[in-house]
Design brief:
This protein starts with 12 loop residues before the first helix and ends with a helix. It has helices spanning about 15-20, 75-80, 105-110, 115-145, 145-155, 180-185, 190-200, 215-225, and strands at about 25-30, 35, 45-50, 50-55, 65-70, 75, 90, 95-100, 160, 170, 205-210, 210-215. Helices cover about 40% and strands about 25% of the residues. The strands form three sheets. A four-stranded antiparallel sheet has the order 1-8-3-6. Strands 2-7-4-5 form a four-stranded antiparallel sheet. Strands 9-10-12-11 form a four-stranded antiparallel sheet. The relative contact order is 0.14.
Length: about 230
């Protein structure tokens, strides 16, 4: 999760060990689909390393992405709990490593370490509440902010310093195509391309393929605020 809060936050080392002992490590390649919307499956996944994209496909075939997952994030928890079909598709943006926590593993945890299982479920509910707030914010952004504001807000939130010596610039923390960027901010690839080229001509960003460096942070912050 974000802001240093993870699924294991607040759990004792012993409780974490009890959970991790039930998990299986899995490596996935870039573009590999781990779970697909509408399919069955009761495994939950925790991200050890890499980046993954969560998206849904509308009845009209339009792809809309919600979030990019990274280290300490997780997915698949809803199907673990209720056994229903997957509500979204998750695919690797880059080579990644996951921990797989299956339904039967949770059942074993509940039998062998019931207190740990209850603590784990409590943490799961708390982080799910946080995800609902994030989803609400994304919905509000799609309604009230234009493409320029949504793109600027995403770039700022998903970037990191280029280097310790370059304090003025920030680099997008994950390589995304302009199509993928569009699905994350609910915009067409053409709109994203047009806006990035416009900002590049003004010296606001540098664009080299999927590598985007943010140069004028103050202007991007203004645009993210709708100004």
């Amino acid at each position: 999760m974000r802001n240093g809060d993870t699924l294991f936050s607040g759990l004792s080392e012993l409780a974490q060990k009890n959970i991790l002992d039930q998990c299986v490590r899995r490596k996935v390649r870039k573009k590999e689909v781990i779970v697909r919307q509408g399919r069955t499956g009761r495994d939950m996944f925790m991200v050890v390393s890499g980046r993954l994209k969560v998206s849904v496909l509308s009845d009209e075939g339009k792809e809309v992405s919600f979030i990019v997952l990274g280290k300490d994030d997780y997915f698949g928890e809803l199907s673990l709990v209720d056994g229903r079909r997957r509500s979204a598709t998750v695919a690797a943006i880059e080579d990644s490593e996951l921990l797989v926590f299956g339904f039967h593993a949770y059942q074993r945890l509940l039998q062998q370490y019931p207190q740990t299982a209850i603590q784990f479920l409590t943490r799961l509910l708390l982080t799910l509440a946080n995800r609902l707030r994030v989803t609400d914010e994304l919905y509000q952004d799609s309604v009230f902010l234009d493409v320029s504001a949504r793109l600027a807000k995403f770039l700022l939130a998903s970037s990191r310093p280029v280097s310790e010596s370059d304090t003025d610039g920030r680099l997008l923390d994950v390589e995304l195509s302009q199509y993928e960027l569009g699905t994350l901010i609910n915009a067409s690839r053409e709109s994203v391309n047009k806006k990035l080229r416009e900002w590049e001509s003004l010296g606001i960003v540098d664009v080299k393929g999927s590598r985007i460096v943010l140069r004028d942070l103050s202007i991007l912050e203004q645009k993210a605020g709708g100004f």
